[in-house]
Design brief:
- By secondary structure, the protein is mainly beta.
- It has one domain: Tachylectin-2, Chain A (5 Propeller).
- It is built from 2 helices and 25 strands.
- The strands form 6 sheets. Strands 1, 2, 23, 24 and 25 form a 5-stranded antiparallel β-sheet that branches. Strands 9, 10, 11, 12 and 13 form a 5-stranded antiparallel β-sheet that branches. Strands 14, 15, 16, 17 and 18 form a 5-stranded antiparallel β-sheet that branches.
- A hairpin with a 2-residue loop joins strand 19 and strand 20.
- The chain is globular, with a radius of gyration of 18 Å.
- 41% of the residues are buried.
């Protein structure tokens, strides 16, 4: 017998996504509630968030895929390829409403994104480890993008700590966490990097692709990693982790082995989570080009 993960009215009033996830007592079941085709070319999908009634999706149109070098050059294992980064805005029916380009020259790969309650934060990096990155803040209504800061590392995802006014960024493979203090001193937005070298990620079973602020100083991160079985076949395992945004320790690690009909694990890149209709709902866009928004509820056994 199964139960949908729900909260009482009083619990819901006081709850955050972090509290909700912390209360999970056993491995939940995934229940697909809707599949919404997107009516536009999505290219290589990356990050997902929602502001009001609208969804926002980052994506990269790759003109030439990066090619690995025979041996490292200037600290890189591959060239940068060529492409264009996008932020798409679409409605709950999958209709495209607006789009903007983000990045400049070799910096064209947008990543996982987060909404701080007013703005959307978007990282754009070179399409290779240790490449340069640009961090944007985007007004979801006007789609006007403002460059906030840059860093010499490939930032693949960000999450905004609304309680501490801090932006957390993860580099390629999410091996290092970076923290920026965000301030509006003198009506000018500033992002101050706390530790130049960042903080090492001590969790290895998945690489984070997209993260959302979950309340209580925590972020929920979605990702995947490839493993090989005894036959040498590659298997992609997905996962969700609830991460403390100060210590970067995981309070919840949830393996995800749900796949689309095309065989793509649902935590492949874009991910958004919310409490809707008194239920925990997760949104995924794991497939490229002709994409589908999959909506799942978590159900307790």
């Amino acid at each position: 017998m199964f139960q949908v993960c729900t909260l009482s009215a009083q619990q819901k009033k006081q709850s955050t996504i972090a509290q909700y996830l912390t209360n999970i007592q056993s491995e939940p079941l995934w229940h697909l509630t809707d599949s919404i085709p997107l009516n536009f070319d999505t290219y290589h999908t990356q990050g997902l968030t929602k502001a009001g009634n609208y969804f926002y999706l980052t994506s990269v149109k790759v003109n030439h895929w990066p090619q690995r070098y025979a041996s490292p050059k200037d600290g890189f294992d591959r060239d940068n390829g060529d492409g264009v980064g996008y932020l798409f805005k679409f409605n709950e029916n999958g209709k495209l409403l607006d789009s903007i380009r983000l990045g400049k020259d070799a910096v064209y790969h947008p990543g996982g994104i987060d909404f701080d309650g007013k703005y959307i934060w978007v990282p754009v990096c070179e399409y290779r480890p240790f490449g340069k990155s640009m961090i944007y803040r985007v007004n979801p209504e006007t789609m006007q993008a403002t460059l906030i800061t840059t860093i010499t590392d490939a930032i693949g995802a960000v999450a905004y700590n609304r309680d501490a006014n801090e932006l957390i960024g993860m580099n390629w493979g999410s091996r290092v966490f970076y923290t920026w203090k965000i301030s509006n001193a003198g009506n000018k937005i500033q992002a101050i990097l706390v530790h130049l070298k960042g903080d090492l990620n001590q969790h290895f079973y998945v690489d984070f692709q997209d993260c959302n602020y979950a309340g209580n100083g925590k972020m929920i991160c979605s990702g995947l990693r490839s493993y090989k079985n005894a036959k040498g076949e590659s298997i992609k395992l997905g996962g969700l982790e609830l991460i403390d945004m100060q210590t970067f320790e995981a309070g919840l690690q949830l393996p995800v082995s749900q796949y689309t009909a095309k065989g793509v694990v649902i935590t492949n890149n874009p991910f958004y989570i919310s409490i809707a209709n008194n239920k925990l709902q997760c949104y995924f866009i794991p497939e490229d080009d002709k994409s589908v928004l999959y909506i799942h509820e978590l159900r307790q056994q």
